[in-house]
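ok so heres the complex, two chains, lmk if somethin looks off
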Amino acid sequence: MSSANASSAKIFKPRFNPAKPAFGVLVFLLYLFLLAPLLIVFVVSFASNQYLSFPPEGLTLKWYEMLPQESTFMEGMKVSLIVAVIVTLIVLVLGVPAALALDRFEFRAKAAVQSFFLSPLLIPSIVLALGMVLLFGPLELNNTYAGIIIGHVAITIPFVIRTTLMSLATTDTSCEAAARILGADSWTVFRRVTLPIIQPGVIAGGVIAFIVSFDEAVISLFVAESGLPTLPVQVLRYVENSADAAVAALSVILILISLAVVVVVERVMGLRKALR
Amino acid sequence: MTVLEAPAAPERPSAQDEGQLERATERRNRRTYLALLLPGLLGLLVSFVFPLAYMVRMSFNQGAPDGVIVETFTLDTYIQPLTDPYYWRVTLDTFQMGVTVGILCVIVSYPVALFLARSTSKWRGLLVAIAIAPLLTSAVVRTYGWMVILGTNGLINSSLGGLGLIDTPLKLTNNMTGVTIGLVEIFMPYAILAMISGFGRLSPQLEEAAGSLGASKFKVFTRVTLPLCLPGLLTAFLLVFVLSISTFITPRLLGGGSVQVLATEIYDQTTGLLNWPFAAALSVILLVLFGLIIAVYQRLTKKIGG
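and the predicted structre for the whole thing:
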């Protein structure tokens, strides 16, 4: 592909094409639009204006210094971290074996089972959230860790299944076969051969599950708004009620966490592959 | 990004080895795959199937305004939204928002996707990653960013006011304008991702061929490039449309209570009015709309072979 491009570029070398820089500028502006809300949050978080306004009057770190004293944020952070870590562990334990079964075994209704595992992504989260708050009522799971965690498991399993499947699909099975011939039992084959091979998919799935759970707002809002608000729910409330920039500093921290996840996923398997 | 691409051709085990292996594994197959699938299936049953099933059942109950739920089997909850003009209005607004956001999102995403699909730069991987990375940032945070940009004292109004171009701030939040702008940006990464995957048949050779045969730049674009991109644009539109009609956070925050769409209505019925059967019925209606469009979407993507 690239060699073909290079050779054709040689043949059709354009002299100067005014459309090209114009197109480049357009793409640059669109990138700016795409990143605008994230960039603006950075600017506001360092601005010393007491209330949200422009232009920034000066530089300050006071919003960041305020964060540890905002007990709602710290509480929310704690809840979200606990939930996200447990959700990640659970969906890895549930999802990786399921992906293994879907890739390495032949059985009836395999396509249907695979679609089923990916289907939570096709259901609007508001609908899922309502179903959960209704079902969890009589079960007394609303406003509990268990309730939020169960809710988040549904929407994170598809990511783990998908990234693990992708890693499984690109590996060949001869190493596993060799290990088995040499007498390794199934568990040893999995732990010593398969797992290291599919590690990128498992890591990508795990960190995506973590960030999806950590940033999830709708299910958490329905299931646990009053009793156990997660960080996104606290941010939502704060944004609705006040105009200062403390939440901008918090947002920057959330963006940086997302950025770390993006870098990990890009490194281990490629963001585009993982999110397709 | 290249770590896993193009694995070396595996060395095939001999046919005899393979036959033996197959027989040996087949015996354990059934038990093994069931054991591997079961935890995941149970997990989804509890966290996904049960809530949805319970919600569908709830939609046939009767709700009273004070939160009392009468266990019964009635279609009342469906008749009300289907006969009350207010809910027709909300449903139409939701649809209109979905169409507007879908079209605008396709328009602003297309140049970026086209650029990325054609690019041979060594930065292409990074640029693709930057374009879709916002997918993994919180919707609450990105919506907050738009509130800062569009608000009464926000970036746009302060800049325009400072330049003396406007006297009174433009009303860009707490209305559909703000919600639309926010949603277009929030769904751009999805649209770009769908387009890049859908532009498979686009090749620079075709464009060059048309160009060398005498077609003008404009003609090459309208007669060659655009038609080849059309399937990708269409799937991107449908994807953004379904995402828009069910989204909650952005209409809630940027709409500030004055934008009513199906999702905000479901929330209000659930937490404010405690009319759970009614909220459930609205959700089922949303789900049916959603299912219809997803079916169209999947049929289309299959046709394109994407």
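quick notes: The domain at 85-305 of chain B is CATH 1.10.3720.10 (MetI-like fold). thats all i got rn
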